Amino acid sequence: MTDFAVPVNTVGMPAVARVLSIAGTDPTGGAGIQADLKSIAANGGYGMAVVTALVAQNTQGVRSVHTPPVAFLREQLQAVSDDVQIDAVKIGMLGDRDVIGVVSAWLERVRPPVVVLDPVMVATSGDRLLSTEAEHALRDLLPQAGLVTPNVPELAVLSGAGEAGDFDEVVRQALEVSQRWGVRVLAKGGHLAGEVVSDALVDAHGPVAVQRLDSVRITTKATHGTGCSLSSAVATWQAATGEWFTSIERSKRWLTESLRHGEALAVGRGHGPVSHFAGLWARGGLETGFTGEWWARIASLRRATGADPFLAGLADGSLDRSAFTAYLAQDAQYLDGYATVLFRLAQLAGEPDERAFWSAAAAACLTAESALHRTWLDGHVAELDPVTGDYLAHLDQAVAAGYEQGVAAVLPCYWMYAEVGVRLAPAAAGNPYREWIDTYAAPLFVQSAEQARVITDRVAARASLVVREQMGQAFERSAHLEREFFAASLRVGLPA
Ligand SMILES: Nc1ncnc2c1ncn2[C@@H]1O[C@H](COP(=O)(O)OP(=O)(O)OP(=O)(O)O)[C@@H](O)[C@H]1O
Ligand SMILES: Cc1ncc(COP(=O)(O)O)c(N)n1
Hints:
Catalyzes the phosphorylation of hydroxymethylpyrimidine phosphate (HMP-P) to HMP-PP, and of HMP to HMP-P. By secondary structure, the chain is of the alpha/beta class. The chain has 2 domains: 18-282, 3-Layer(aba) Sandwich (UDP-N-acetylmuramoyl-L-alanine:D-glutamate ligase), CATH 3.40.1190.20; 290-488, Heme Oxygenase, Chain A (Up-down Bundle). Helix content is 55%, strand content 10%. The chain has 19 helices and 10 strands. An 8-stranded mixed sheet has the order 2-1-5-6-7-8-9-10, with helices on both faces. Strands 3-4 form a two-stranded antiparallel sheet. Strand 6, helix 4 and strand 7 (147-148) form a beta-alpha-beta unit. The chain binds adenosine-5'-triphosphate and (4-amino-2-methylpyrimidin-5-yl)methyl dihydrogen phosphate. (4-amino-2-methylpyrimidin-5-yl)methyl dihydrogen phosphate binds at residues 23-26, 31-32, 55, 57, 92-93, 120, 123-124, 129, 224-225, 227-228.
């Protein structure tokens, strides 16, 4: 597979589902198509949107609704389906009977494989988003959906009963709707009181009629758009997995996490939005910063380093022992110089935490890593290989030019060794070079590499454009020398 190949899942569909939201707007970004697009992206899909109505609303309420002519809605729908293969559709606010008619006709013609209908009727603020006379038309749309996701009041309207007072009643109403309209129902219990929030997938015609999901109720005001976000997430997961209950479970896990972080966004004074990407951000899915950019620039070099015969031999343990000793003999000299540069960085650092980090790094370099060399080299000293000499000269020059370049120049050694260590660690058991692999896969080393990266990013952010450019160049030069260092290990002579 080339770098540019689209990943394909086992059923031959692109792994990134193309999901269309047909819904109204929310200029504050918490509900409607704005929320749908974030939700689809956060759950791994490619989001598209056709607008049914323009809604002047915020976290406090709806001010007015503008519905474009339905002919234009038809054109939007056609423009998408004439061009794009749609893997899933989520339907939200429809507004009135004419809009429902156009969407229904389009569904009939295009027949998307997944259709999730969120029967939006009333906003959290209490404002109507569906005219009362359109409620019948919305019911008639149910059989065209694979799943309908009503909240407690919406379920009452669909079933023609009064609002349920407890979750058992919710399930009874959902069974009735499922039975009558031949549709799966995800009945949502968000509007009921209690420490536990219950939802249930109800399918009167399925092998299991009721599958219930309980989760903790998050104490938060940021619940605007939870229904929109949930239905979009389920549509996205359903396109990817083909399993309704699995899709609902995954979507709920994501929504609960997003609800937890909603208030931190501080959007609006009413019911704020959920934080759609909070989980991704927390897990580091957001590779920002200057070092991330430099790291991406050396991607092919890193791949080549990974495929290097020396590292391949280390990985499967087939590396000749004398080649490893030769490598360590050079590395011992390199680390000696490297530690000196780290001490120099400690002297140059302006921030106390950075000074502390580089001092500790230098000490660790001299003690922990040299223990490895002592074991293997047993006092042997080798002549300095030109590559080792070049690398040390480069580090010296960089740190002589200033703290910024010095920091950038020492980073690839940390980062590339941590990458190699972590990659080789799973196969380390029984490997004669296990001690080497363990040194660089150790959590403490990997954390130090990460800390060095964070510091370098911080330094780059403070630096001028010119200095930042020089930092990037120093980083790249070190990365090249790192690669050459490994490559040279198979040709340098044995220690004396
Ligand atoms: N405070 C909360 N803590 C945890 N989960 C919640 C909370 N509030 C709602 N949910 C969950 O969010 C989803 C939407 O629930 P809800 O019943 O509020 O639907 P809704 O009224 O359509 O949403 P919306 O707020 O968009 O109108 C459900 O899965 C529900 O369990
Ligand atoms: C365009 C649009 N669609 C749906 C909702 C419902 O979301 P909520 O009930 O959270 O206000 C909304 N407010 N606006």
